[in-house]
Amino acid sequence: MGTTAGLAQLRELLDMGMAKGYGIGALLGMTAESLEPGRVVFALTPRTDFSNPLGIVHGGIMSTLLDSAMGCAVHTALPDGAAYTTLELSVNFVRPVPLEGGRLVCEGTTVHVGRKLATAEGRVLNESGKLVAHGTTTCMVFPPATRE
Predict the structure, then answer these.
(1) Number of domains composing the chain
(2) HEC string of the chain?
């Protein structure tokens, strides 16, 4: 899989006390459950302010959870100085998620990490271990800047 400077960078964030999230993760209360080369597991517990007009968890919450886990899975596989951005995100919602349904766990794994593009897939499971959403992403990879 090559170097994993991105993995070290994510682990450093956790070591600095950001285990309860960073950026959007902190806003949603995401926690990092596992960080490995090409694999990331994030979790969150739905809150009332995550609801849509039907009173269930808004699809945007699960989309953000998937985007974060899949993107960070790509991040773990990048060399020092490289960056990435999401080009495409596809999400499939399998079943509704009640606000009081308990913790959601999302695993993101890389499928392909190349010099210019990376792809990953993800799955969100409810507290009972049932699939509630899954998705894929394509990320553009920016190589480390060359220094002369």
Answers:
(1) 1
(2) CCCCHHHHHHHHHHHCCCCCCCCHHHHHCCEEEEEECCEEEEEECCCHHHECCCCEECHHHHHHHHHHHHHHHHHHCCCCCCEEEEEEEEEEECCCCECCCCCEEEEEEEEEECCCEEEEEEEEECCCCCEEEEEEEEEEEECCCCCC
Q: What is the pLDDT along the chain (148 residues), one digit of tens a residue?
A: 445 677 777 767 666 554 455 678 888 998 889 889 999 999 999 999 999 999 999 999 999 999 999 999 999 999 888 899 999 999 999 999 999 989 999 999 999 999 999 999 999 999 999 999 999 999 999 988 754 4
Full residue range of the structural domain in which residue 49 is found: 5-142
* Residue 107 belongs to domain with CATH number: 3.10.129.10
Is 124 within the bounds of a domain? yes
Distance CA 145, CA 29 (A): 33
Residue 56: inside a domain, yes or no? yes
109 found inside a domain: yes
Distance CA 87, CA 139 (A): 5
**Beta carbons of 43 and 102 less than 8 angstroms apart:** no
